[in-house]
């Protein structure tokens, strides 16, 4: 495995852990409701590679252990990978391999022997897996289950991704067959090589056939880490071998418009003519090459990495395995009937609208959750602070009363009366006379007639507030002139009330600061995307949605802000967009321990967010410098919107060579 930038890069999954935690707080991410198998089976999986941070919990255990190479895994073990991390495991008895990607949560639900067959089942809550399944016998079973779908396979190279926030499952095959079943409806479909499907939650459709399309390579690469792309490339010879065998079978099934069927599931792929069948098989041959080229275009791998891998594979195979200059674009219409195209043209916009509404609801939930956490923390602190305040007030009253009594005890009778009289006038009310109303004030101590030096709190001498001298009123004299003659007062000249000045709208600017030097000696450089804002209203929370190029990769470093305190609560999410774009969603609340108040308004320009990135400057184009802000929202400590942007605004980032 390449120990280089590959171990650092991901397509922006940093915020996924916090997003999932926040959604769990508000009940938006239901669990799978699984039981943990405590017993160990006789079958074992072995860790073959590990990068970054990965842990495993044994069946029935609560302690997590660090994963290491050659570690044995059993039925019931729970694997979790961190940011920019991966784990590769291999089933000892079958040789099947699984590359578990970053931010994945995987449970080995069943590794068992049943009669003469072997059953292997994996449950995945989040993340992605690239699988290389060795040929299974008639009684063997291999399944991967997510919250929305169940995938069953035979000998297959395939990819599955589970999105915990939308509960969507994305599946595509490079070779072999994959049966995909919707957990909600029971509907199932058969995927052939180069086909893909996304299964949503709660039974979006009764029939899965219209959801099957030819693979969108740009989408697949966005979902994949550099490790997965590398593994796909390394598996190319095995993929080609399986495809050659598969073509012979499919040629008989698909000839004259036939249908591929496996275990009750059928493929919607149609080939009425030999020419259409030929275009389908051409896609089979071009898939791996297109994935590698797209990985280069999206910056998931560098040219030096790919060339080194191709040379290594050439030496091992004794000949060229892949020539990128000969790769042809995949035909996304191959094997898709006109009727299916019509159904998809109607279905996909409807599903996208439903999905967007769900995402918007979840994005608002993130900010609401941040505010709620702040309120709960503030409520507990405010209650404690109020108790301390009341205790301090009571203590001060008691000490003042003690000092007063000590002072009065040293006065003669007349001196005491004079003091109390002055106190009554100063406080504007009655003051009880100590010693006459049942109090315990001791009488004066006999002594010399001169007044003793007071001890304790001295009296306050009331100061009379002088009344303002009224201004003379001008009288109307003859001819309307002011004069000394009595008469009606002249009407004062009215003063116009100035119209309120509308506060200027907050203004964003973006700058890309490139740091000197490359990362690990490769083409990638560390950079900061600085988002600054001017004319900030008084606020407690802020939410920004930003569309940016997929060439920018989230680095494994913390964000910073000049506008928000270091103790802020925040969420940072990268979400895939169509084409070569991705969406950044940032929400933060200005929570500070012991405080729960809006930050003051400011006209000064301050940095709202500094986002660490990795980028290859040689790949950047003018299009990559475009940033589209679709939402910019400020709320106060009561959760009320104080300013919300309208529409989408385009910004062009300025490239700088220092990050100050």
TrEMBL record:
Q: Where is the FecR protein domain?
A: 77-178
Q: Where is this region: Disordered?
A: 254-274, 427-503
Q: What stretch or stretches form a coiled coil here?
A: 378-408
| Keyword Coiled coil attached | yes
InterPro entries reported for this sequence = FecR (IPR006860)
- Carries keyword Coiled coil? yes
Would you tell me the protein name for this molecule?
Answer: FecR domain-containing protein
- Write down the species: Paenibacillus aurantius
């Amino acid at each position: 495995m390449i120990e280089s930038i590959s171990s650092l890069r991901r397509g922006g999954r940093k915020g996924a852990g916090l997003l999932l935690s926040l959604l769990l707080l508000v009940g938006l991410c239901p669990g799978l409701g699984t039981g943990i198998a405590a017993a160990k089976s006789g079958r074992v999986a072995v860790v073959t590679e590990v990068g970054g941070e990965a842990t495993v919990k044994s069946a029935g255990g609560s302690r997590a252990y660090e994963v290491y190479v050659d570690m044995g895994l059993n039925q019931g073990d729970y694997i979790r990978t961190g940011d920019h991390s991966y784990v590769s495991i291999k089933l000892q008895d079958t040789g099947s391999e699984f590359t578990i990607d970053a931010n994945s949560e995987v449970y080995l639900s069943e590794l068992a022997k049943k009669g003469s067959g072997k059953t292997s089942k994996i449950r995945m809550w989040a993340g992605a897996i690239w699988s290389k399944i060795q040929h299974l016998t008639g009684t063997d079973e291999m399944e991967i289950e997510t919250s929305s779908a169940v995938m069953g396979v035979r000998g297959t190279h395939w990819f599955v991704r589970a999105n915990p926030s939308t509960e969507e499952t994305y599946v595509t095959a490079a070779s072999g067959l994959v049966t995909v079943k919707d957990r909600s409806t029971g509907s199932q479909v058969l995927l052939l090589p180069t086909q893909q499907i996304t299964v949503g939650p709660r039974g979006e459709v009764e029939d899965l056939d219209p959801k099957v399309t030819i693979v969108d390579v740009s989408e697949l690469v966005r979902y994949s880490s550099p490790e997965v792309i590398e593994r796909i490339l390394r598996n190319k010879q095995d993929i080609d071998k399986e495809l050659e065998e598969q073509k012979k079978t499919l040629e008989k099934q698909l000839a004259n418009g036939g249908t591929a069927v496996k275990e009750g599931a059928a493929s919607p792929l149609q080939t009425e003519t030999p020419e259409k069948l030929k275009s389908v098989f051409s896609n089979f041959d071009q898939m791996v090459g297109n994935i590698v080229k797209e990985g280069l275009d999206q910056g998931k791998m560098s040219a030096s990495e790919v060339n080194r891998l191709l040379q290594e594979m050439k030496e091992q195979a004794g000949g060229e395995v892949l020539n990128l200059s000969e790769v042809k674009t995949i035909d996304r219409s191959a094997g898709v009937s006109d009727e299916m195209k019509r159904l998809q043209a109607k279905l996909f916009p409807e599903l996208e609208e439903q999905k967007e509404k769900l995402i918007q609801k979840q994005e608002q939930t993130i900010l609401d959750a941040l505010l709620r956490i702040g309120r709960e923390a503030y409520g507990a602190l405010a209650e404690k602070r109020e108790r301390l305040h009341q205790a301090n007030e009571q203590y001060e009253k008691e000490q003042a009363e003690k000092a007063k009594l000590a002072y009065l005890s040293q006065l003669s009778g007349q001196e005491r009366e004079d003091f109390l009289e002055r106190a009554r006038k100063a406080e504007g009310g009655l003051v009880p006379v100590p010693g006459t109303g049942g109090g315990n004030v001791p009488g004066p101590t006999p002594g010399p007639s001169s007044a003793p030096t007071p001890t304790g709190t001295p009296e306050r001498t009331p100061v009379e507030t002088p009344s303002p001298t009224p201004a003379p009123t001008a009288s109307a004299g003859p001819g309307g002139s002011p004069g000394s003659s009595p008469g009606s007062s002249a009407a004062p000249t009215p003063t116009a009330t100035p119209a309120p000045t509308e506060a200027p709208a907050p203004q964003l600017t973006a700058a890309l600061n490139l740091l000197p030097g490359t990362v690990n000696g490769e083409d990638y450089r560390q950079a900061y995307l600085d988002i600054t804002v001017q004319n900030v209203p008084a606020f407690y929370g802020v939410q920004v949605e930003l569309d940016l190029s997929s060439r920018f990769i989230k680095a494994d470093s913390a964000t910073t802000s000049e506008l928000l305190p270091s103790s802020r609560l925040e969420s940072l999410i990268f979400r895939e967009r169509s084409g070569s774009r991705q969406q950044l969603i940032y929400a933060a609340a200005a929570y500070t321990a012991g405080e729960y108040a809006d930050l003051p308004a400011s006209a000064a320009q301050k940095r709202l967010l500094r986002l660490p990135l990795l980028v290859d400057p040689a790949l950047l184009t003018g299009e990559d410098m475009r940033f589209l802000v679709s939402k910019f929202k400020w709320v106060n400590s009561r959760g009320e919107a104080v300013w919300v942007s309208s529409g989408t605004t385009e910004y062009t980032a300025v490239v700088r060579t220092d990050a100050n």
